[in-house]
Amino acid sequence: MTTVHVKTITAGDYPVTVQLRAHELRADLGTSSGGADAAPGAHDYFDAALAVCKAHTAMWYAKRKGIPLERVVVVVESNDAEERQGIYKMHVKLAFHGPLDADQRAQLERAAAACPITKLMTTSTVQIDTTVELG
After folding, report:
1. Mean pLDDT along residues 68-89
2. How far is residue 95's CA from residue 93's CA, in Å, rounded to a whole number?
3. Percent of the chain with pLDDT strictly greater than 90
4. Positive or negative torsion for Cα 113, 127, 49, 32
């Protein structure tokens, strides 16, 4: 089980600290939503989770299969224009660097396509139970 702790930094303002194990991150709303854009927002972290997962999965697969992958570059472009209608569009660009042949690139592409976050985002049922505690 993973536990994430989030709390506001300044009373009545959007920026928050995010504690995850020994890591501290920050998050804020973008200026179009009333924030100061002082840190990535929730959607940014959502998009980043996909990019990180694809990069890690490709590298993990390459190491496991002895594929000479030196570096992975992932770019995720998202469009939330139809999010209220239930559509969040993401376009992923992958670049695999190293002395790779066409078959190895295809294997890495298939591995990245099957990363756990892709599966979570596209095939899993996510259950969220929320309780409110006194502050």
Report:
1. 96
2. 7
3. 98
4. positive
3-state DSSP assignment of residue 127: coil
Q: Which residues contact 4 (CB under 8 A, 6 or more apart)?
A: 18, 19, 20
Q: Is the pTM of this model over 0.90?
A: yes
CATH of the domain at 69: 3.30.300.20
Residue 101, phi then psi, degrees to nearest 5: -95, 175
Structural domain containing residue 117 = 41-125
Instruction: Place 135 in a pLDDT band, splitting at 50, 70 and 90.
Output: confident
Domain count within the chain? 2
**Is residue 82 in some structural domain?**
yes
Judge whether 71 lies within some domain: yes
The answer on 53 and 27 residing in a single domain is: no
Q: Kindly tell me if the per-residue pLDDT of 51 is higher than 90.
A: yes
